[in-house]
Amino acid sequence: MKTLISCLFCITLIGCAGGGAGKFGPYNTSSDGEDKRLMLNGYDPVAYHTTQELTRGKPSISTQFDGVVYRFGSEANKAEFVKSPDRYVPQFGGFCANGIVYGIPWGGDGDQWKVIDGKLTIFGGQASRNYFLMYREPNMALAQQYWRDEVSGSNAIWQRYKRLVLRVPHYKTGAQLETEWQQSRQQPLKPASAQ
Questions:
Q1: Residue 138 backbone class (left: φ over 0; alpha: ψ -120 to 50; beta: rest)
Q2: What is the DSSP secondary structure assignment for residue 153, as one 8-state letter?
Protein backbone atom coordinates (compact mmCIF):
# COMPACT_ATOMS: atom_id res chain seq x y z
CA MET A 1 0.00 0.00 0.00
CA LYS A 2 2.86 2.34 0.85
CA THR A 3 4.39 1.71 -2.59
CA LEU A 4 1.11 2.47 -4.34
CA ILE A 5 0.74 5.76 -2.45
CA SER A 6 4.36 6.66 -3.29
CA CYS A 7 3.78 5.92 -6.99
CA LEU A 8 0.61 8.02 -7.07
CA PHE A 9 2.44 10.87 -5.32
CA CYS A 10 5.28 10.74 -7.90
CA ILE A 11 2.83 10.67 -10.81
CA THR A 12 1.04 13.67 -9.32
CA LEU A 13 4.33 15.57 -9.03
CA ILE A 14 5.24 14.69 -12.60
CA GLY A 15 1.79 15.76 -13.72
CA CYS A 16 2.08 19.09 -11.95
CA ALA A 17 5.50 19.72 -13.43
CA GLY A 18 4.35 19.22 -17.04
CA GLY A 19 2.00 22.25 -17.30
CA GLY A 20 2.29 24.71 -20.15
CA ALA A 21 -0.38 23.12 -22.30
CA GLY A 22 -1.10 26.43 -24.00
CA LYS A 23 -4.53 27.32 -25.27
CA PHE A 24 -4.70 24.42 -27.75
CA GLY A 25 -2.21 21.96 -26.21
CA PRO A 26 -0.75 19.92 -24.72
CA TYR A 27 1.98 19.69 -27.32
CA ASN A 28 4.46 17.02 -28.33
CA THR A 29 7.66 19.07 -28.35
CA SER A 30 11.37 18.43 -28.46
CA SER A 31 14.35 20.57 -27.58
CA ASP A 32 17.01 21.78 -30.01
CA GLY A 33 19.48 24.55 -29.24
CA GLU A 34 17.65 27.66 -28.07
CA ASP A 35 14.25 26.14 -28.84
CA LYS A 36 13.10 24.24 -25.76
CA ARG A 37 9.51 23.65 -26.98
CA LEU A 38 10.04 22.83 -30.65
CA MET A 39 7.17 21.37 -32.66
CA LEU A 40 7.44 18.65 -35.30
CA ASN A 41 11.12 18.03 -34.50
CA GLY A 42 11.85 21.20 -36.45
CA TYR A 43 10.08 20.28 -39.69
CA ASP A 44 8.27 23.04 -41.58
CA PRO A 45 4.49 22.75 -40.91
CA VAL A 46 3.55 24.58 -44.12
CA ALA A 47 5.65 22.33 -46.37
CA TYR A 48 3.59 19.27 -45.35
CA HIS A 49 0.67 20.95 -47.15
CA THR A 50 2.42 22.68 -50.05
CA THR A 51 5.10 20.21 -51.16
CA GLN A 52 3.88 17.08 -49.34
CA GLU A 53 7.51 16.51 -48.34
CA LEU A 54 9.45 16.71 -45.12
CA THR A 55 11.30 20.00 -45.11
CA ARG A 56 13.69 20.77 -42.30
CA GLY A 57 13.01 24.21 -40.83
CA LYS A 58 15.81 26.63 -40.05
CA PRO A 59 16.36 27.94 -36.50
CA SER A 60 16.79 31.41 -37.99
CA ILE A 61 13.30 31.27 -39.58
CA SER A 62 10.94 30.50 -36.73
CA THR A 63 7.94 31.81 -34.85
CA GLN A 64 6.00 31.02 -31.70
CA PHE A 65 2.35 30.09 -31.58
CA ASP A 66 0.52 29.16 -28.37
CA GLY A 67 3.79 28.88 -26.45
CA VAL A 68 5.61 26.51 -28.82
CA VAL A 69 8.14 27.11 -31.60
CA TYR A 70 7.70 26.29 -35.29
CA ARG A 71 10.57 26.41 -37.79
CA PHE A 72 10.29 27.02 -41.52
CA GLY A 73 12.30 26.31 -44.64
CA SER A 74 11.57 29.77 -46.07
CA GLU A 75 10.36 33.22 -45.08
CA ALA A 76 7.38 32.72 -47.40
CA ASN A 77 6.29 29.62 -45.44
CA LYS A 78 6.69 31.49 -42.18
CA ALA A 79 4.55 34.36 -43.49
CA GLU A 80 1.88 31.88 -44.63
CA PHE A 81 1.87 30.25 -41.18
CA VAL A 82 1.65 33.58 -39.34
CA LYS A 83 -1.27 34.59 -41.57
CA SER A 84 -3.33 31.48 -40.65
CA PRO A 85 -1.65 29.26 -38.05
CA ASP A 86 -4.80 27.20 -37.36
CA ARG A 87 -4.53 25.84 -40.89
CA TYR A 88 -1.00 24.50 -40.38
CA VAL A 89 -0.60 23.41 -36.75
CA PRO A 90 -0.82 19.64 -36.39
CA GLN A 91 -4.01 18.32 -34.90
CA PHE A 92 -3.88 16.57 -31.53
CA GLY A 93 -0.91 18.70 -30.45
CA GLY A 94 1.42 16.74 -32.73
CA PHE A 95 0.93 13.57 -30.71
CA CYS A 96 0.36 10.25 -32.46
CA ALA A 97 -3.25 10.27 -33.68
CA ASN A 98 -3.51 6.53 -33.07
CA GLY A 99 -2.67 7.09 -29.39
CA ILE A 100 -5.28 9.84 -29.10
CA VAL A 101 -7.89 7.29 -30.28
CA TYR A 102 -7.32 5.75 -26.82
CA GLY A 103 -6.99 9.05 -24.96
CA ILE A 104 -3.20 8.60 -24.71
CA PRO A 105 -1.06 11.62 -25.73
CA TRP A 106 2.22 9.89 -26.47
CA GLY A 107 4.76 9.83 -29.25
CA GLY A 108 4.48 11.25 -32.69
CA ASP A 109 7.26 11.73 -35.17
CA GLY A 110 7.34 14.54 -37.70
CA ASP A 111 8.37 12.04 -40.36
CA GLN A 112 5.22 9.88 -40.04
CA TRP A 113 2.26 11.95 -41.17
CA LYS A 114 -0.72 12.44 -43.44
CA VAL A 115 -2.82 15.49 -44.23
CA ILE A 116 -6.40 14.37 -43.48
CA ASP A 117 -9.29 16.68 -44.32
CA GLY A 118 -6.84 19.57 -44.62
CA LYS A 119 -5.25 19.00 -41.18
CA LEU A 120 -1.75 17.70 -40.53
CA THR A 121 -1.99 14.41 -38.64
CA ILE A 122 1.11 12.93 -37.00
CA PHE A 123 1.79 9.28 -36.12
CA GLY A 124 4.26 7.51 -33.84
CA GLY A 125 5.56 5.23 -36.60
CA GLN A 126 4.52 3.39 -39.72
CA ALA A 127 2.57 0.76 -37.76
CA SER A 128 0.57 3.43 -35.89
CA ARG A 129 -0.15 5.14 -39.19
CA ASN A 130 -1.34 1.85 -40.71
CA TYR A 131 -3.59 1.06 -37.76
CA PHE A 132 -5.17 4.51 -37.69
CA LEU A 133 -5.81 4.59 -41.44
CA MET A 134 -7.20 1.04 -41.42
CA TYR A 135 -10.32 2.44 -39.70
CA ARG A 136 -9.79 6.08 -40.64
CA GLU A 137 -13.28 7.53 -40.14
CA PRO A 138 -14.18 5.85 -36.82
CA ASN A 139 -10.64 6.43 -35.51
CA MET A 140 -10.77 10.11 -36.44
CA ALA A 141 -14.13 10.47 -34.67
CA LEU A 142 -12.73 8.79 -31.53
CA ALA A 143 -9.52 10.85 -31.60
CA GLN A 144 -11.48 14.09 -31.95
CA GLN A 145 -13.78 13.05 -29.10
CA TYR A 146 -10.95 12.15 -26.71
CA TRP A 147 -8.97 15.25 -27.67
CA ARG A 148 -11.97 17.49 -27.05
CA ASP A 149 -13.26 15.77 -23.88
CA GLU A 150 -10.06 14.69 -22.11
CA VAL A 151 -6.72 15.60 -23.64
CA SER A 152 -6.98 19.22 -24.80
CA GLY A 153 -5.87 21.55 -22.04
CA SER A 154 -4.68 18.66 -19.85
CA ASN A 155 -1.25 17.71 -18.64
CA ALA A 156 -0.04 15.15 -21.19
CA ILE A 157 1.92 13.07 -18.69
CA TRP A 158 -0.94 12.81 -16.24
CA GLN A 159 -3.44 12.03 -19.04
CA ARG A 160 -1.12 9.39 -20.48
CA TYR A 161 -0.73 7.55 -17.18
CA LYS A 162 -4.43 7.82 -16.43
CA ARG A 163 -5.36 6.15 -19.74
CA LEU A 164 -2.61 3.56 -19.51
CA VAL A 165 -4.16 2.43 -16.22
CA LEU A 166 -7.84 3.15 -16.93
CA ARG A 167 -8.21 1.85 -20.48
CA VAL A 168 -10.97 3.05 -22.80
CA PRO A 169 -13.65 0.44 -23.61
CA HIS A 170 -12.46 -0.01 -27.21
CA TYR A 171 -8.76 -0.42 -26.31
CA LYS A 172 -6.74 -2.79 -28.51
CA THR A 173 -3.17 -3.92 -27.94
CA GLY A 174 -0.50 -3.50 -30.57
CA ALA A 175 -0.64 -7.25 -31.22
CA GLN A 176 -4.41 -7.12 -31.81
CA LEU A 177 -4.05 -4.18 -34.19
CA GLU A 178 -1.22 -5.90 -36.06
CA THR A 179 -3.36 -9.03 -36.52
CA GLU A 180 -6.23 -6.92 -37.88
CA TRP A 181 -3.82 -5.04 -40.17
CA GLN A 182 -2.37 -8.27 -41.56
CA GLN A 183 -5.87 -9.71 -42.09
CA SER A 184 -7.00 -6.54 -43.89
CA ARG A 185 -4.06 -6.85 -46.28
CA GLN A 186 -4.95 -10.46 -47.14
CA GLN A 187 -8.55 -9.72 -48.10
CA PRO A 188 -9.04 -9.27 -51.85
CA LEU A 189 -10.02 -5.78 -52.93
CA LYS A 190 -13.63 -5.35 -54.03
CA PRO A 191 -14.30 -3.76 -57.40
CA ALA A 192 -15.25 -0.07 -57.14
CA SER A 193 -18.83 -0.81 -58.22
CA ALA A 194 -19.30 -3.27 -55.34
CA GLN A 195 -18.14 -0.84 -52.63
A1: alpha
A2: T
Report the relative pairing of strands 109-116 and 68-72 from DSSP bridges. Answer: unpaired
* 111 and 172 belong to one structural domain: yes
Q: Among 137, 140, 143, which Cα is nearest to 99's?
A: 143
Closest alpha carbon to 118 in 46, 43, 23, 70: 46
pLDDT value at position 95?
Answer: 98
| Residue 159 DSSP class | H
Enclosing domain of residue 42: 22-87
Chosen domain end from 87, 120, 142: 87
Query: What pLDDT digit, counting tens, does each position of 128-144 carry?
Result: 999 999 999 999 999 99
Q: Where are the beta strands (DSSP E) in the chain?
A: 29-32, 35-39, 58-65, 68-72, 109-116, 119-123
Mean pLDDT of the chain: 88
pLDDT of amino acid 60: 98
Per-residue pLDDT of 142-169, as tens digits, reads 999 999 999 999 999 999 999 999 999 9
